[in-house]
Automatic annotation (TrEMBL):
Protein species of origin: Eucalyptus grandis (Flooded gum)
The UniProt record lists the keyword Repressor: no
Family per record: Belongs to the class-I pyridoxal-phosphate-dependent aminotransferase family.
Cofactor: pyridoxal 5'-phosphate
Record's protein name: 1-aminocyclopropane-1-carboxylate synthase
Length: 331
């Protein structure tokens, strides 16, 4: 969201701090604490932004959480923007629940505050078509969007193709069923492979990625140590993962791994590289865990963290290090 919402508008994102102790669930307490900090800093909060299913967690927001979110935004009289771009990537229970369903449960909810965004990029694998949707209950927002759409119209040819495809209920049903099956298989294969070398992942059920726990590989629990580890994975393992700090994660050591954009052979290569990387640093798979965390530790004594941070590499678009001229530019 930093790139999508902030680079041009200079809007400010304030993270709602969630914790691994409850699987990063969004709680009312976390919402209230984030809001209170904003008020204390004299920041006017305009809305709450949620992704459901979650990116990068790969989990869904349950009905109770969505109800709490609706209650919260109504009480604060702020907007709720719900990004449901991964709605059809759920590959096992529990099922996806749209915020639109929650609104129907209680007529007291202020619908003018709720806006849903969606795209065909993820569920249907059409990122190049640039087809997005804004579904709002607020007439003013819809009218504004209608006028702004003139600057980014979808071509007639694309509209015809998409309309024809979406009208074929049989094809859509088969496609989504096959997609869910493949996502489940890939998710299981990847998490099983990581588990063999003592690496755990958040128990997800949706999305095109998984949330990998590498806290046991950090020399200390800091963003600097996480960034150093990320740079080593880029340079040594030759895998492009996204560090948790680029998603405002409060706990260093979590990484997002995209698993749906590679074939079976590439998946095996990726897992083999991770295994070799862990074992090469003097670790043994399936070690006993102490205090709920892996006993894995990287041996970074041969290289100072500052040297790692300054080493040249191809930066991830989610990189927390603003070296790209696109990040630095103000015009």
């Amino acid at each position: 969201f930093d790139r999508d919402l902030c680079w041009r508008t200079e809007a400010r994102l304030l993270p709602v701090v969630c914790h691994s102790s409850n699987n990063f669930k969004v709680t009312r307490k976390a919402l209230e604490e984030a809001y209170a900090k904003a008020v204390e800093a004299n920041i006017s909060v305009k809305g709450l932004l949620l992704t459901n299913p979650s990116n990068p967690l790969g989990t869904i927001l349950d009905r109770d959480t969505l109800r709490e979110a609706m209650s919260f935004i109504n009480e604060k009289n702020i907007h709720l923007i719900c990004d449901e771009i991964y709605a059809a990537t759920v590959f096992r229970q529990p099922d996806f629940i749209s915020i639109a369903e929650i609104i129907e449960e209680d007529q007291e909810y202020n619908r003018n505050l709720v806006h849903i965004i969606y795209s065909l990029s993820k569920d249907m694998g059409f990122p190049g078509f640039r087809v997005g949707i804004v579904y709002s209950y607020n007439d003013a927002v819809v009218e504004c969007g209608r006028k702004m759409s003139s600057f980014g119209l979808v071509s007639s040819q694309t509209q015809y193709l998409i309309a024809s495809m979406l009208s074929d209920d049989q094809f859509i049903g088969k496609f989504l069923l096959e997609s869910a099956g493949r996502l489940a298989t890939r998710h299981n294969d990847f998490t099983d492979g990581l588990r063999q070398v003592g690496i755990k992942c958040l128990n997800g059920n949706a999305g095109l990625f998984l949330w990998m726990d590498l806290r046991g590989l950090l020399i200390d629990s800091t963003v600097e140590a996480e960034t150093a580890l990320w740079q080593m994975i880029i340079n040594d393992v030759k895998l492009n993962v996204s560090p948790g700090s680029s998603f405002h994660c409060s706990e260093p050591g979590w990484f997002r791994v995209c698993i749906a954009n590679m074939n079976e052979e590439t998946t095996k290569v990726a897992l083999a590289r991770i295994r070799e990387f862990v074992l090469r640093n003097g670790n043994k798979p399936n070690r006993k865990e102490k205090c709920g965390q892996s006993d894995l530790r990287l041996r970074l004594s041969f290289r100072r963290i500052d040297d790692v941070l300054r080493s040249p590499c191809i930066m991830s678009p989610h990189s927390p290090i603003p070296q790209s001229p696109l990040v630095r530019t103000r015009t």
